[in-house]
Structures are given as C-alpha cells and as structure tokens.
Amino acid sequence: MHGQIGPETRHSISGEFSGGVRMIAPLIVAVIPIGMVFGAAAVAKGLSMMEAGLMSALVFAGGSQFVAIDLWTHPASWSALGFAALLVNIRHVLMSASLAGRLDAFGSGEKVLAMLFLADEIWAIAEFRARERRLTPAFFAGLVAPFYCVWVLAAFAGGMIGALIGDPAVIGLDFAFPAVFVVLVIGFWKGRSTAVVLLASAAMATLVHHLLPGVWYIAAGAVAGLIAAAITERQEGAR
Fold first, then answer.
1. Could you tell me which InterPro entries the record lists for this protein (predicted)?
2. Distance between CA atoms of 127 and 135, rounded to whole angstroms?
3. Could you read off the pLDDT of 70-87 as tens digits, one per residue?
4. For residue 172, is it left (φ>0), alpha (ψ between -120 and 50) or beta?
C-alpha cells in the first residue's frame, strides 16, 4: 500500500544506520575520556553531576563547553559565557555550509536536525562519506545517536568520579581533546596546502592568544586559516 515502508526499504535504512554507527565507533571510543574530563572539570568548578550532564545534553559542543567551564565564576557572567561560546562555535557555520550541498536526500526538517546535532567528529565522517557515496538521513542518524548518548553519559560519569580524578592534567587526560582533532586533521591531509593552512592558523592563534585576553585567538586562527586556504587554492588553480 502507498505510504508503507517495504522490507527492502527498511533493510536499506537499517544498513545505512548501522554503517554510520560503524564509522563513528572509533571516535566514540576517543570521545569518552574527553566527556569524562569535562564532567570532572565541571564538578571541580562547582557544578553538580546533574548540571554537568545537562550541559552536555543541551549544549552538545565540547569546545564551547570547555571554554565556558574555564570562564565559569560564581555568579556566572552569562554574557561573557555566551560570547565565548559563540566565538568557539562560529566554525559550525562553515561546517554547515560545507555539508549543505550534500544533503539532497534530506527533507527540510531533517536538515535542521542534522545541523543542530553537528559536531566536529560527525561533520568529518559525514564529509568522508559524501566523497564516496550519497549522504542519507539514516547514515547521519547512525553517526549522531551513539555519539550524542556516549558524550552525555561520559559527562555524567566524569562528574561522578570527578573528586577521585582531581586535576585531569595530572594524569594526562586533558590531552584527549586535542588528540581527537589531530586524528581529524590527518584524515583531511592533502600535502603542502594543508600544512600552509594549519601553520597560518596556528601562528595567528598563538599570536592573538599572547596579545589579547579571552578566546579571540580561536576566531583569529579560523580567519587566518580561511585566508591561507583561499590564497593556496588560487595559487594552485593558476598553475
């Protein structure tokens, strides 16, 4: 009958979903210590275990969550926290734009949901997938569902054992967050052009970090990287 989903369609959706789960699985393993470090850091700043977990569930943005915790005071300056989160997450505009042309299989509502649950790791895997095959809502859901659940549960777990861990840097868990980004960068490595972009971004971010307080170095590094990418692409196109 019209409107019913046949066995073949259900099998296809199930296969796409499980494919997304398989591809995101290695990064889920890597994100567990990051979520736990966040939970521990949040509890150390005075938040309850429940508040740490809810922050991960409602914000779902590791970078901005860590920045917010770093700036957290009692009472909290909501304007400063909001502005810092905006600067950190401004990259999501670029990530959303890069995926926009690859969502032809998505309905309008599905596109909105996909962007709401966008994260660096999810975006990277979605980009890899789109290079090889059509990106489907079921595959994207397979990326998001386990990643989101593990991120929230890890924050709860980190909050529970935060008192036992103490300072995450003492046992090296603070390195888990940058380690994931190193893996993502390697996946996008294209040789000299990638190196130029990374060096420009790192140099500008380091300079601004030393000259200006706050998190302006994040936006500065992103802008420098974009400019370097545009210049490099134009030079390669002129050859």
1. Brnchd-chn_aa_trnsp_permease (IPR011606)
2. 9
3. 777 666 667 767 777 777
4. left
